[in-house]
Write a structure and sequence with these properties.
414 residues; alpha+beta; globular
Length: 414
């Protein structure tokens, strides 16, 4: 019996090669009807450009990863994707995936994508430095601000960070501060168009971050923050020159370079503190899987998705490759080999999702245009060339137009 092939494109990176090594051969061996073939497409940017070019010409791979949820509406509108509802029912995807995850992949009521990686933001801290100075990890925004002042007074940078290699990473901080100060419910209402982005709670959120930035709490000053590379601020954090780092769980992939064997300091994490003191974890869907409308064999491609998104495979990808799992129901027994700190992180993250204590990341839940506006204009806000009020007024106009045009990514109901 000849197997039906399914093509998956991926960047030429070690982490992607690890995923391929962990999954492709085993799937091909255990399936009697389907076979998946991986095709390297250069760097991340080259892979993205190749996929954009191919999709536009109807020559994309069977399984495509369309750069995140914000791109989903335009791909569906362009007729490039195949609805997945039939396969979801056939293979029982709802039994393995948490409910909001499937809802997030719907456009006009039909399912078009599955979330690949479920990531979040936490407050990483230099454990050795904290123990040396007797500092306790903060649990509320007020405690965080007070601790940053104390750390600064000790001649240590409170927060590592930098955007020289990633100007768009200013989105990180916008999303975290509005989710943790204004709160997830307010953000949800604004994303739905029920309240404006000029709401006083959002003004307070951005003013708080701006004040902390202008006090030099990030890398010692706004200019240094803009100039710092990933390596520079990661090195400062690991060396104890900076005490904390607000970053997503992808930082786990860099930790072996800066902590552990051969390094003096150690690390740990706590939820990024909120105004209420509740543990809020923002949802970051690092990418999505969809089926090309012109797939050679969508049934075989759907079989591959069922395998890839099984809890057993997702747990193995996390343990072997350090890649965040998709939002599937992974049993604790599947993660026994995992660093206890990481296992605790994903356990608490899962609990927060179940209790609706989750916030929102810009590139997943805002529109593309409003996301670009945020990171471009935030530079002006932080350098006093644009007031917070004017910034939010401009954001409200951009977002309202996109919302009226149907460009907002899917938004799970709370």
């Amino acid at each position: 019996l000849e197997k039906s092939p399914g093509e998956v494109w991926y960047p030429d990176e070690d982490v992607w090669q690890c995923i391929v090594d962990v999954t492709f051969a085993e799937f091909n061996a255990q399936s009697g009807t389907a076979e998946v073939e991986g095709v390297k497409k250069g760097s991340v940017m080259e892979a993205r450009e190749a996929l954009q070019y191919a999709i536009a010409r109807g020559r994309g791979p069977d399984v495509i990863t369309p750069f995140g949820p914000a791109h989903l509406p335009e791909l569906v509108e362009g007729g490039h994707l195949l609805a997945l509802d039939t396969y979801a029912q056939q293979y029982g995807w709802e039994k393995e995936m948490v409910p909001w995850a499937l809802e997030h992949g719907r456009v006009d009521g039909l399912l078009y994508s599955l979330p690949v990686e479920l990531k979040t933001f936490v407050l990483w801290y230099n454990k050795a430095l904290f123990e040396e100075h007797g500092w306790e990890p903060p649990t509320s925004m007020d405690e965080l601000i007070a601790l940053a002042e104390e750390i600064d007074g000790a001649g240590i940078i409170p927060f590592a960070g930098g955007t020289s290699e990633c100007p768009a990473c200013l989105e990180w901080y916008f999303g975290e501060f509005v989710s943790h100060i204004a709160g997830p419910e307010k953000v949800y209402q604004a994303l739905n168009g029920e309240i404006p982005w000029t709401d006083p709670a959002f003004v307070r959120s951005i003013e708080t971050w701006k004040e902390m930035m202008q006090k030099g709490y990030w890398m010692g000053g706004v200019d240094r923050f803009f100039d710092a590379s990933f390596d520079e601020f990661s090195s400062a954090f690991a060396a104890g020159e900076a005490a904390m780092n607000l970053e997503g769980t992808w930082f786990l992939g860099r930790i072996p370079e800066y902590f552990g064997e051969g390094h003096e300091n150690d690390w740990d994490w706590v939820p990024f503190p909120s105004a209420t003191g509740e543990a809020i974890f923002s949802l970051d869907i690092g990418g999505t899987r969809s089926l090309d409308r012109d797939s050679r064999d969508p049934q075989a491609a759907a079989e591959w998705l069922t395998y890839e998104f099984s809890p057993e495979v997702q747990a193995r990808i996390l343990m072997d490759c350090g890649v965040a799992p998709a939002p599937v129901r992974i049993e604790a027994s599947m993660l026994e080999e995992l660093d206890p700190r990481i296992a605790r992180l994903y356990g608490e993250f899962a609990k927060a999702q179940a209790e609706n204590n989750y916030g929102y990341t810009v590139w997943n839940f805002w529109t593309l245009n409003s996301g670009t506006y945020i990171w471009e204009k935030m530079q002006r806000v932080l350098t006093d060339r644009l007031t917070v009020e004017d910034f939010l007024e401009g954001l409200d106009k951009v977002y309202a137009k996109d919302l009226a045009d149907g460009l907002r990514p899917p938004l799970p109901e709370r």
